[in-house]
Structure formats: structure tokens, C-alpha cells
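INTERNAL AUDIT FORM
Audit reference: QA-55
Scope: verify that the stored structure record matches its stored sequence.
Auditor: D.O.
Record contents follow.
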Amino acid sequence: MPQRTIPDHIALAPIGERIDWVFDLARRHAETFASPGAWLARQRHLAQHPTAIMVLKCMDGRINIPVATQTPPGIIQPFRNLGGIFDLGWPHLGETLVAHVDKVVAAGRAGLVMITYHFSKGDPARGCAGFHYRTDDARAHTFQIREQVRALFGGGNVPTIFPLVCGFETDEDALVLHGEDGASLALAELTPDDAAGLPQRLAALLPGMPAAMRGDLLPLLRGNLAHIAETRQQRAAGARALDIEHREWMLCVGRGFDWLHTPNLALIVGPYSPNLEGPILQAAGIVRANMEAGRIPDDGFLLLTSVPYEQIGVDRARAVLKCRFLARFAADAIRRHDPDLAPRMTLRRAVLNWETRAMEALGDDGP
């Protein structure tokens, strides 16, 4: 289970101690992921529910779909970007998504693409900063992506790739499923006792989704009902506080940050947009504002680049080169446009072994 919050004594510690804590968090995640129990749980789940699940979501650390649905780690393939803003016309995003779908289909599996936006029912200021806390705009964007997925992968009576728009309410980690013609299903309005009726509700909401895919989606919904109930119990007992204040001191660029789901810790920029400099500078501006407001120590921030690889040899070597490029690109952009912030930047580079989820730090040497 990912650590929900950063301990207070770490949040206020010198930058070196904070960085050590982050890399230890990545190490602990990899150890858990590679454990025999976790491996067996993944294999069992995939054998029973073969539909591949992909999630397009915001970089916000609160949006942890595997935890919120009680799904074994490694089942859901995430695509994360600042603000949850995507365009399948972006060359790298389109190529990455199509490459993943090609592997899924070649294995004889269908795919479900969950396209998410997030909001807070308790306070709009806990919503998505990428859309300036305007939930209607964030929701409208997800419906645009849904149409792009349909245009890219087609439809038909039995679609192989099915796009599903989902809201994520961060106060209770509750999913909202959107069907056609404005219909929706808010799981926060149900209880675990309603789990038995989910197949009928899902069939009525999503009649175009293949029956087998609906069956593979049901465990996520049942898990979310159970998780919402647990979250409410924790809130009533005072064990879970709402993370309202932005305290990000990490700027992450690249992919392979599945281990980083601690709220208000990091701003993650996926390498998808043709204009990478824009979101990098936007994220750097948020970090600088956090320092100026005293929400985080002003002694430094971490710029971390990461690229996953699946095979040793050429694939890993390319990941190393790409990681170093992203580091140079992001650091140079910050030095040019925010020279007062740049001296407080600590740069770290890493590649991620996708099979084990082990993060491998790279030194300063090399091209």
C-alpha cells in the first residue's frame, strides 16, 4: 500500500533528507511489487479478468485508482499528465498508447480506457488546478478524449477498445461512471450492500460495453464501494485528514512514477505534449509559489526525470539517453525562465525496470 502522506518531520526536513525519503519510498514500492504474494495476486486477477485496463489521469497524487478500487498493483496501466490534459493527436502520446494497445490485442485481450477527471465535493479549491478548479471544463475535456479514442480504435457492435469517462471525487476516493445521454453512476451514493445489483446498473448505464468487459470492470466497482466505506470510517475516527494545501516540492518529468501517489508532494509532467516547456514552467512556478508562501522549505526542490524500459540492452540504453535528454531539457528551461529558482534545483535521473518496478538512479556521467 503506498504511503498516503509524507510525515511532517520529513516534509519540513532539509532537501537532502527529503530526497532520501523519496528514493526510499520508490525502493519500498518495488519490494512490495516484486514480492511473491503481489505477483500471485496479479496473475490470479489477470486469469479471472483478462481485460486490459488503461487510465488517463491527472498527475495529482490523490488519484490512486488501484488503491481506490482495491486492485492489485500492476494491473492498471496509467498515463499521467499535469491537469489530466491529453490529446491523442500528440505524436508521442498516440504512439505510446497504440503500442500498448497492440500488445494487448496481440495477446488476445480487449482493452478498457478509463478517462478521468477529478473534483472535491467538499471544496472546489481541492479540485483540479490544471483546469483552474473548474470541474465542468475538466469533465468536458474527458468527453473530447473519449471521442478521440473512438476515432483512433473504432467501435462496432463489440468494440475491442472501449473508452469510459470517469469522475474521481477525492474527498472519498469515489468513482463516478458516465454513460451515454448524460446518464451517470456515482458510487458514493451506494453502499457495499448494493454490490449485488451492480451488474444490472452497469448494463443499463453502458449497454455498448461488451458483457465480458463489464464483468471485468465489476471487481473495480465492488472494490471502490468497499474503499469508500473504509474511507468514511477513517474520516469518522479522525485517521484521515483532507490534504487541502499544496506543498509540492518535486517536479517529475517522464514516466514510471506509479510509486509516487503521495498527495501534494510532486507535480508530474508526462512526456506527451509537443510543448513540454509550458507545463514544466507551470509546475516550476507552483513550486516557487509554495516556497514563497512558506508551505515548503525554501532550501531546494527536486527535479526528477524517469523513463521506463522493458528489456535490457538497446531498450534500456535508449531509456537512459531519453532520461538524460529530459533532464537537460527541463533544467535548461528552468534556468532560462526562472533564474532565481534554478540555484535551488537538485537534479536526479533514473530509469525504471518495468518488470520489477525497481528505480535505477543514473549518475551525472554519460551523454
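Auditor finding: record pair retrieved intact. The chain has two domains: 45-236, 250-362.
Action required: none
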